[in-house]
Amino acid sequence: MALLPILEYPDPRLKKVAAPVAAVTPEIRKLVADMAETMYAAPGVGLAATQVNVHKQVIVIDVSDERNDLQVFINPVLLEAEGQAENEEGCLSVPGYYDRVARAERIRVRALNARGETFELDTDGLLAVCVQHEMDHLRGKVFVEYLSPLKRSRLAARMRKKQKLAG
Ligand code: K1U
Ligand code: ZN
Q: From its phi and psi, is residue 157 left (phi > 0), alpha (psi between -120 and 50) or beta?
């Protein structure tokens, strides 16, 4: 397994749209293992392949307290979305920044797991927030794009300054 570098906002590669995975091959399973290791090390509760500069529809999530319930979503499709709730979100591509975002409260999603089997999941709470956040990454959207233009431009300036200082 390997730790993968995570792209930081406003890196233009975060805007790329991920392609569907044609088949769950050993190469995809290696990507899943590397993404899981990267997510646990960060630490985070989710990671989309876009964030590690791989533009394929692959997501890993673990919202369990024990950090032992890895969920893999390949080629996820949102089947249903109900209600609305505002929650605090963070993003490994925007380190140190948290803000409130409104999203669907309950969702039904269909995806492939790491064995290439189709499954459907009804969920709410943090898992529903996280699935929607990660699916946005696959579409090239970072959560800060839901914020006001003023907040976004301040944040982009802060991130550029931080990246310049880091060399
Ligand atoms: O996609 C990402 O950048 C990961 C992101 C997922 C997420 C968190 C909260 C709401 C929506 C989406 C994170 O994991 S940010 C870090 C974080 O929330 C966390 C880190 C350690 C323990 C618990 C949470
Ligand atoms: Zn994110």
A: alpha
How far does the centroid of ligand 2 lie from the alpha carbon of residue 70, in Å?
17
The neighbour count for residue 79, using CB atoms within 10 Å, is: 12
Task: List per-residue pLDDT tens for the chain, 167 residues long.
Answer: 899 999 999 999 999 999 999 999 999 999 999 999 999 999 999 999 999 999 999 999 999 999 999 999 999 999 999 999 999 999 999 999 999 999 999 999 999 999 999 999 999 999 999 999 999 999 999 999 999 999 999 998 988 888 888 87
Question: Is 37 one of the annotated active-site residues of the chain?
Answer: no
How close is the Cα of 95 to the center of ligand 1, in Å? 10
Which ligand 1 atom lies nearest to the CA of residue 89? Answer: 10
Pocket of ligand 1 (CB under 6 A): 43-48, 89-93, 129-130, 133-134
Closest CA to 63 of 87, 44, 37: 44
Q: Where are the domains of the chain?
A: 12-166
- CATH class of the region 12-166: alpha beta
